[in-house]
Design goal:
heterodimer, A: mainly alpha, globular, B: 546 residues, alpha/beta, 6-stranded mixed β-sheet, 20 helices
């Protein structure tokens, strides 16, 4: 089947999935007790019941849930995510301000974890009983066990007190002015620690799977064939081995997209990274339903795009998938 | 000077019990252009010898002693990089499993071109056009288009042709072929051997052919080395050895080759009773849905309206190549796959009408002996439990009698009751197949389906299991539906033969009728493709029978 047809099919699934996510999110948020009016009243130092009712009517919160849901879905389908009660700004505008920061963090952590995880896995598999192999296993165990915010805090302490090599907060140095390159360099500099702490868990995950997958592949008949052709160890391992060992790793990476995003929420708080995570945290505390829903919607979108990319990557790697779907 | 000589070779594998020699005190030599065959059963060290020559021993193996001289250079002392310049260039190798020996993620053209770029320094485009020429040389049609396809889009025989093209790409002086046709159908095997003969003659390549089949040796080899348990027990020129084998093992290997000529057939006519058969199959059709693109489904007809009978106490063989539908037909009789239409009557019961509990009960009547004795027994159950499990599920034996019945079954199949406490991995392949037979016998079935029951076994073990099946048939009045691709085995076992081809039975008759006087082209082709010593001897101009 050609790639465009597959893409069209996947996109139609994605749309249906997005609507389902919208409905579920909306219902769950509304099942939780309390609304934004409680927060506003609290900020004002208390308000009368009449005033609170009045605010609710103003925001349309007095209508039945099902009507609110219908209105919401209808508006989203017109690319309108509503207006934040708490910040008093359009939700879409706020999200687009912060989305690039989160995307940068999520994708760089994911790519960093994939590259390093695959490298470590391959080297560990070449000598399954060597030192590096044991280090990878140990590191993987550590990565599984250590929560991402804990790693983050450790890095933060280390780099703020002992080795002031990388900045530990924010996204860019405000004192720097100049063109694109100095700015980008500053962002990259700030990105190092958040990326490291978010990536660490996933490096562990990917390197372990890649090691196992490589070990299996290196024992297969076509590797013996490749050796019998007189190819160099590098060609045997990387050209014939790695390409066959990749699909499980890429599949896992695709499934982990949602985990990377939820990890990003924590990492952003630790390193004051101005992304969606921070916005999510404040709007949850403020019971700012439209903002929360908007963030959830975009998170779902990122996960779906991530999975789509995974699908395409797998088709690129393995010709058998191209044929079967 | 011989092209290749192996002198006093000893290969050891590191196991938990220490170093185990798998090849010992082996010496052999190969002259330019000749075909040397190394014969032996699994575990005889013949593949290890090939891998040692290639420098491809598994991680746990090493050469403990001896020399391997190729054009005077000792390969065992050579640097890895120098050895890599010889591998795939001066010495090419093809393997047993064409299904898994090609890399699934690269096109076959790329996999051939890669060798040419590596050893002959050809450019990308030159290597590709040479790869297409090589595909032509191994008779793959539409080579230009096929070069860009992936291994999974090719049949087993075609993949083996690609392997040959790859191994011969640099016109090596030696081609090592390790059981190159064992995984292939017999007609495909004949084609592959023709191709190997043609190309090695053209390129003046010497061949080391590793096989377990004396018939293949007789047709292909100039000289022969017989290996048993890591050591060379016999050797010499093929026609000398066939006429005058020295070692008793060589004699038994030669004896195990089927004799398919009519003179050697047992001509005592078996009477064909025409009373009601035990199993009666009429117009049996089995179809599977195949997915064709997005949302489209098509039916694939695996078995196309076949009919046959088996009389009580007799054996019918369903013969055919892979994909002919023989196994599907048998599984439909056992109600393990669903039939679309037709009639199956066993002992007066309409088998296709059975449902639910009645079907479960009826399973006691039809039991199956499966092909692979390694994977068809549950590794976590003790042998005794495997055999008595059908008694618990289907038998009419009272609980207290079951251990005694299991012990009796063990004795019937030539095992001892004290082996009931062992796990499957503690048995050899032949013994495991005996366990499989005991399990099939447990419920006193009226029909036993043997699905390639001896195909995975070495020839000598195979003969023992076939004897056991025949003895049991005589003693217990068993009826067999015998599925096999191996005409030699069929000829030893069966009363009647039905030849299947693409879902149809193309020829059916008594054994003698089908083997001695085949009516259909396909049957004739099938019979002609079986390697046989007689035919080889005829070619060599030898008249004395062995």
């Amino acid at each position: 089947m050609n790639i465009l047809k597959v893409l069209a099919q996947r996109l139609s699934y994605a749309l249906a999935l997005l609507i389902a996510v919208l409905v579920l999110n909306f219902t769950m948020i509304n099942l939780a007790p309390g609304d934004v009016v409680d927060t506003i009243a609290a900020d004002m130092g208390g308000a009368s019941a009449e005033l609170m009712e009045q605010i609710r009517t103003e925001y349309g919160l007095d209508k039945p849930i099902i009507v609110q849901l219908g209105n919401y879905v209808w508006r989203v389908l017109q690319f309108d995510l509503g207006h934040s009660y708490f910040y008093n700004r359009p939700v879409t505008e706020m999200i687009f301000e912060r989305l690039p920061a989160t995307l940068l963090l999520v994708f760089s952590a994911q790519i960093f974890a994939l590259i390093l995880g695959i490298l470590l896995g391959v080297f560990a598999a070449i000598r399954p009983n060597g030192i590096l192999s044991h280090i990878v296993t140990l590191f993987a165990l550590f990565g599984y066990a250590a929560p991402v915010f804990w790693t983050g805090i450790l890095l933060l302490i280390a780099f703020s007190l002992n080795i002031p090599l990388f900045p530990v907060a924010g996204m860019r140095d405000v004192t720097i002015d100049g063109g694109f390159f100095p700015q980008a360099l500053s962002v990259a500099h700030h990105l190092v620690l958040p990326m490291l702490s978010l990536g660490s868990i996933f490096i562990a995950l990917y390197s372990r799977l890649c090691r196992a997958s490589m070990l299996e592949v290196l024992g297969s008949d076509y590797i013996r064939t490749a050796k019998a052709k007189g190819l160099s160890p590098r060609d045997v391992t990387l050209k014939h081995g790695l390409k066959n060992a990749l699909p499980p790793v890429v599949t896992l990476a695709g499934l982990q997209f949602s985990a990377v995003i939820s990890g990003a929420v924590l990492v952003e708080s630790v390193f004051s990274w101005p992304g969606l995570g921070q916005l999510a945290l404040t709007s949850i505390l403020a019971r700012d339903t439209p903002t929360i829903l908007g963030i959830l919607f975009f998170s779902a979108l990122v996960v779906i795009i991530g999975n789509l990319l995974t699908d395409l990557a797998l088709r690129l790697i393995d010709p058998r998938i191209r044929k079967s779907t | 000077m011989p092209l290749l000589s192996v002198e006093d070779l000893r290969v050891e594998l590191a196991t938990r019990g220490g170093m185990v020699p798998v090849v010992d005190a082996l010496s052999l030599h190969v002259e330019p252009g000749e075909t040397l065959s190394i014969v032996g059963e699994s575990g005889s060290g013949k593949s290890m010898t090939a891998l040692a020559i290639m420098g491809l021993l598994p991680r746990i193996g090493h050469i403990a002693k001896g020399r391997i001289l190729f054009e005077g250079q000792d390969l065992t002392q050579m640097e890895d990089s120098a050895l890599r310049d010889i591998r795939g260039n001066q010495i090419g190798m093809i393997f047993q499993e064409p299904m898994t020996s090609l890399n699934p993620v690269y096109t076959v053209g790329e996999q051939i071109a890669e060798v040419l770029r590596r050893h002959q320094g050809l450019s990308q485009t030159d290597a590709w056009s040479r790869a297409i020429e090589l595909l032509d040389a191994v008779h793959i049609p539409n080579s230009r288009r096929r070069a860009a396809t992936y291994p999974h889009e090719m049949s087993g025989g075609q993949r083996q042709r690609v392997m040959i093209a790859m191994a011969l790409a640099c016109q090596p002086k030696i081609l090592i072929a390790d059981e190159p046709t064992t995984a292939l159908d017999v007609t495909v095997q004949a084609e592959i051997f023709d191709l190997m003969r043609e190309l090695s003659r053209e390129m003046q390549t010497a061949t080391i052919l590793i096989t377990h089949d004396m018939g293949v040796v007789a047709e292909m080899a100039d000289r022969i080395v017989v290996m048993l348990k890591g050591e060379k027990v016999d050797g010499g020129r093929v026609h000398d050895l066939l006429q005058n084998p020295q070692h008793s093992y060589t004699k038994s290997l030669i004896a195990s080759v089927p004799h398919l000529t009519s003179e050697t057939l047992d001509t005592t006519a078996r009477t064909d009773e025409h009373d009601t058969p035990l199993l009666r199959v009429r117009d049996l059709t089995v179809q599977f849905p195949v997915k064709k693109g997005f949302g489209k489904r098509e039916m694939f007809t695996a078995v196309n309206g076949i009919s046959f009978d088996i009389a009580k106490g007799k054996t019918l063989a369903l013969v055919g190549e892979s994909g002919s539908g023989k196994t599907t037909a048998a599984l439909a009789v056992a109600r393990l796959v669903d039939a679309q239409s037709g009639e199956i009557t066993l002992d007066g019961t309409d088998v296709l009408a059975l449902e639910g509990e009645a079907l479960r009960r009826a399973r006691a009547k039809v039991q199956v002996i499966f092909q692979d004795p390694y994977s068809s027994l549950n590794p976590r159950l003790r042998a005794g439990a495997i055999v008595s499990e059908p008694l618990d599920n289907l038998g009419t034996y009272p609980v207290t009698d079951r251990p005694a019945r299991a012990a009796e079954l063990f004795e019937q199949v030539g095992l001892t009751p004290d082996q009931m406490n062992l796990f499957p991995h503690q048995f050899s392949g032949g013994q495991r197949q005996r366990i499989g037979i005991a399990r099939a016998l447990a419920t006193n079935p009226s029909l036993i389906i043997c699905d390639e029951a001896v195909s995975a076994l070495d020839v000598i073990i195979q003969a023992q299991i076939l004897d056991l099946l025949k003895d049991l048939q005589r003693d217990l009045d068993l009826t067999y539906l015998f599925i096999s691709h191996d005409l030699g085995v069929v000829q030893q076992m069966c009363d009647d033969v039905a030849v299947m081809y693409m879902g149809d039975i193309v020829e059916r008759g008594t054994r003698n009728a089908v083997f001695a006087d085949p009516k259909q082209d396909y049957t004739r082709r099938l019979l002609a493709a079986v390697p046989s010593i007689e035919r080889a001897q005829h070619k060599l101009g030898l008249d004395q029978p062995i």
